[in-house]
């Protein structure tokens, strides 16, 4: 995948998964089932200044995202994964349609992203506990919730979903590493360590990333508030 910095990242692949996330052999579109547990489209009507209006929306899960910094290595810990929505968006922008996708012309690698460790809020647990579980499952670091600090709460997808996301910060060490990470069930996630210089290049002017805004915002927060030499 194209990254603005062309960085040479240290990648830790979860030892349980022996599959390539780019090994996608077939892609097609289909109708969204009404019982989808993740996305529910609907139309909202409202009257504003006496004029009836409407807006098409998506109900999606709220989520958490975690900025992870390994103090033993002085590396930021991110995750790499194939995102169908990114793949679809790139092709739709290039072709104006998603019909008859040529996997050689548009290899799955273009849909691979670099992100913060994150996950949806779909359990009857506190948000910080869900964040702790995501850190273990995706990145392999087992830390107590007391070491996970809330950074900020904001809304994502304000034009389509308005879902809430809470961002956290957690410092880890090599001693906290319990597993290789990589996700659960059929997830295929790679754990990526970025040097501070590599991460800085992702947020420099003119950078082009496949990363979501929350990741880039998290990196900027880190450099402003927690990076070595940052002002308190």
Structure write-up:
This protein is an alpha+beta fold. The chain has one domain: Nucleoside Triphosphate Pyrophosphohydrolase, CATH 3.90.79.10. It is built from 4 helices and 10 strands, in the order E-E-E-E-E-H-E-E-H-E-E-E-H-H. The protein has helices spanning 84-95, 127-139, 196-202, 213-225, and strands at 10-13, 40-48, 51-59, 63-70, 75-82, 112-115, 117-120, 148-156, 163-172, 190-195. Strands 1, 4, 5, 6, 7, 8, 9 and 10 form an 8-stranded mixed beta sheet that branches. It is globular. The model is unreliable at 1-17 (pLDDT under 50).
CATH topology assignment: Nucleoside Triphosphate Pyrophosphohydrolase
- Summed up, the helix count is 4
Overall structural domain count: 1
- Residue stretches low in confidence (pLDDT < 50, at least 5 long) are 1-17
Shape: globular
Subunit structure: Homodimer.
Protein name: Uridine diphosphate glucose pyrophosphatase NUDT14
Subcellular location: Cytoplasm
Enzyme class: hydrolase
């Amino acid at each position: 995948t194209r990254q603005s910095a062309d960085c040479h990242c240290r990648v830790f692949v979860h030892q349980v998964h022996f599959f390539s996330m780019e090994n996608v052999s077939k892609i097609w579109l289909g109708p969204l089932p009404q019982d989808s547990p993740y996305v529910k489209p609907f139309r909202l009507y409202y009257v504003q200044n006496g004029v009836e209006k409407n807006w098409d929306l998506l109900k999606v899960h709220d989520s958490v995202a975690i900025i992870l910094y390994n103090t033993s290595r002085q590396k930021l810990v991110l995750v790499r994964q194939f995102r169908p929505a990114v793949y679809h968006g790139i092709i739709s922008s290039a072709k104006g349609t998603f019909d008859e996708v040529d996997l050689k012309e548009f290899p799955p690698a273009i849909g691979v992203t670099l992100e913060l460790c994150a996950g949806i809020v779909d359990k009857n647990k506190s948000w910080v506990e869900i964040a702790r579980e995501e850190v273990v499952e995706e990145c392999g670091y087992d830390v107590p919730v007391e070491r996970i600090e809330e950074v900020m709460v904001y809304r994502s997808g304000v034009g389509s979903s308005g879902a809430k996301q809470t961002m956290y910060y957690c410092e880890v060490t090599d001693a906290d590493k319990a597993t290789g990470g990589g996700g659960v069930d059929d997830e295929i996630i790679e754990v990526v360590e970025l040097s501070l210089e590599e991460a800085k290049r992702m947020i420099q002017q003119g950078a082009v990333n496949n990363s979501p805004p929350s990741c880039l915002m998290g990196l900027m927060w880190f450099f402003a508030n927690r990076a070595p030499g940052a002002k308190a």
